[in-house]
Amino acid sequence: MEHAFRKRLWTSAAAVSAVLAVSTASAHATDLTFVWHAGTCADALVDIAKDYPDKSVNIVPALVPYGPQWHDKIASEFAIQGDAFDFAMWDSQSTAEFAQHAVKLNDIFDKSDYLKADIFPPASLSRYGEFPDGSGEFFGLPANQDAYGLTYRKDLFEDPKEMEAFKAKYGRDLAVPQTYQEARDVAEFFTRPDQGLYGWAQMGGRDYDFATTASNSYLWSFGGELYNPDTMEVKGYLDSPASVDGVQAYVDMFKFGPPGSANWGFDEVNTAIQQGQVAMAMQWFYFNGSNADPKVSKFADKVGFAVLPGAVGRDGKFRRQFSVGGQGMGINKYSKKLPELTKFMEWYFQPEQQKRYAAVCQTGLKTVLESPDWQNLNSYNRQFSTALQYLNDYWHLPEYPVLLDELQQEISSAAAGTKTVQEALSAAAAKNERTLERAGYEIKRGDSTPEVPDQMISPVGVDAVVPVE
Amino acid sequence: MSNANTPAGADGQAVAHATRQNALRKRSSGRLMIFGFLSPTLAILLFMVAYPIFSLIYYSFHNFSALRQSTMKPVGLGNYQYLLSDPELWERFIFTGKFVFICVSLQMLIGIFVGYQMQKNFRGRDVIFTILMMPMMLSPVVVGFLWRYMLNSEWGIINFLLSSVGIAKVDWLGQTNAALWAAAAADTWMWTPFIVLLATAAFRGIPETIYEAAEVDGASPAYRFFRITLPMSAPVLFIALILRLIDSFKQYDLFVALTGGGPGSSTQTVSFSVAKTAFSYFYTGEASALAVILLVIIIGLSMILVRHLTRMGEKY
Amino acid sequence: MTHARTSTIDLAGRWLVLGLLLVYTIYNVGPIFWLLLSSFKSRMDLFTMPPKLFFTPDLSGYQSVFGVGAAKDSASAIGVFDSLVNSVIVSVAGTSLAVFFGTLAGYVCSRFNFIGKGDFMFFVLSTRMLPPVAVLVFYHLMFARLGLADTRFGLILVSIFANVGLATWIMKGFFDGVPKEVEQIAIVNGYTRMYAFTRLVLPMVKGGIAATAGFCFIFAWNEFAFASILTTTQAKTLPVKISAASGATGIEWTQICAAGVVLIIPVLIFFYLIRKHLLMGMTFGVLGRS
Predict the structure, then answer these.
(1) Mind giving me the DSSP string for C159-225?
(2) Which residue on chain C is closest to A50 by alpha carbon?
(3) Which of B54, C41, C191, C283 places its Cα 20 to 30 Å from the Cα of A435?
């Protein structure tokens, strides 16, 4: 009796282990999980990965909504040093924060035959992966580039009656603005609330980085800076006269947007473009595809895309600088599948795959970016490759999320008109310095602060307006 | 209780003996039952609460980020000092207090009113009742987006309806006060059904005989409501109030969806600040200290209310 | 004369009440109607002014939610069914266990006086006071160490934890509504207390159990904060899965509205089934009995 029982136990144990063996055999397939916000680009990555020759490797998306949850998801997995995902796309500014949990890509560059630093434009690789700045150590690959751009209503700009009226009023031709000073006039010209038409749309929302990606573009173009990376001074830089000029120009532009547009995010700006309510809008290149899509946009065939204006600063110099967008691809240090992942990336960053990707999103692979096929693919790729040279970014410091939130808060107040620009920037500078000090940075206060800080930090000002195309 | 309850055919002594035995067994089985029935709940709550609460308190005295664990440093009361001396935190508390006050009062008022009507029996009541419960069943993630869509100043249905009756468009999400009321409207929309449900049940629980007695005395409807219905259902309404108070104190995802906390940080609730400090900044220590402060306030308020409730329970 | 005036006031009062009820109903049902309508609108129609009541229905939102049709090849389509299964398992198991444990605890709290009863009841309630965001990091650390991160079992634990307090309080109320004599008679008749509980008292609070389950189900089914951080792929629930609705043109409003409609259906069915029980005795027992 007991013997029989034991026998049965053994048989069932054997059966169970057989089942387990079978399931582990089938589970031999490797899942490479990635975290990214949902959308066209994640779809493209998954779609391309379906053709990966090694069928035992699955690319598994762990999608999150765009915005803070995306950062939080990645950060909290790093906090437990977990391997729930193997790689992730994160914002360029987050590299500093995540670097200590990411695989240093120089090691991969050293070992790989194909995956080398020089297959990417040096500026792009640095923007999406280098930490600390200038160190030559990389933690992210330029998987999805993006830049701020200008979207405008071609039908309005090319309408002879409008052109004539504009010339009569402003004494020059109606054209895509090259400076924010010009943009202001054009926006004013097209602001006709009685017709439901406005001149300009831009982001001013408090969420994530909405307001500051826009205001920084003005700030840098007018010669301002967020801080001095050498002395860590924020006061005197973020609230310098040139910075105030820039942010003031940004705040003033809300006058030419629909009422209540000072809290808009990217979605509202897109809607205004798609519904044809604005003559011009400041928007990410990422969205151009959908804004030119007749299924989504009523004015799909009437929108044009251009590079954002620059500005002539108080020192008489012209600068064109705007925010970088997009994401780098980083590898989770705690992933146990680095060999498989490296193999996949060697395949994924081949021109053939990246060409497919570039059809819907913006690649960071040099050969594709330089190919005429890609440049002529749609109405904005050429502008995009031009725009890449004017990009600038936030602080590349691990404290970036705190600094960003402080600046967001103050810029949002200025946009809503509850604070003057000077008050807002001074408050932001004080908060940023407090945060840096708490984080242990030493602020070396200089004797004087510049009126136009850009002159001190990697100056980009030139004497005359340099138009693009 | 009659003789029918005593086991048939037993004499008095046997009954007395059995009762004593029963009493003994009852006492020990009672103790066993208390222990046995409470332990699963207690075990799971302690398991789920012990480590996080210990960590919360422990790290609130440290400069600590879970993302940069090597930089941990004890700071004593430093985090608390930093937070409590920040004038902006007080603004967060004042805003949260306003929001909680508006939400809880609106929800209680409307909930009691609707509940009082729903207690009556009428045709189709169950269906209507289920329909009225719908906002509460909706996923909170969707609720935030839905109201953001409806409140949009340019394309939202609410401003469209307002302007079609000649009222000027309101910038619901871009101004502190408008946003406060907009968020309160959304929260009230979602959670009034909770009060309606509890209030209806409470009102229906009042014995009809009490009303009948009042009827004989010729009491007016107002008298009936204020002197019978309200006092008799007050304990339940109080529990509803406590639960809503706790939950609206914790509210932040609505503000994430509607305003992102702006303009400035004027519509950022304390819980929103906790979320930001804990996840965006990953200042685990500081977030813990802020959470402890928040917890102390919620627990304090609830304790006062629960004590009040217990007293009321004893009265009826 | 006096009589006539009272009835005029009565009548006016009744109309006022009816009017107020109507306003509330519009406020209550309007947004739900708008959600339903919007779930069938294309992005272009969603933002057209004046808003359209009649339009060509666009099913892309529902297609995206279920990962079928035009959305079949999107990255979001992967794992929709798995997350539906996860959601069902987690919320059903979480609700049942929370109600089961809450029923036991509620019974004891209703029937016995024991040392620390008030403290126990308050402790049970206070677990609801903890803002989840404040402690999520610690849960994530704890779950990672115990191997519970990204598992259904872990989420079931969370679900019980989040609901057992509410269940205890509500069930105590229902038990308070059952006369104590029920057990007394049974015991005098020689039955055990356990027997009285399972065979006599429990059947009397069947409705209460259904109502408690209804409440817990709402919270378990819609739970978001914990699930969004504690799960990545294996145990991801439906609300977390479909919250990732950003797309080519920003926020995928159609998909979000469709998700809202889809997510509410199970809860609505559940509520409709228990609607009678909901009103039977949800009085937390501090009242007289009816």
Answers:
(1) HHHHHHHHHHHHHHHHHHTS-THHHHHHHHTT--HHHIIIIIIHHHTHHHHHHHHHHHHHHHHH--H
(2) C73
(3) B54
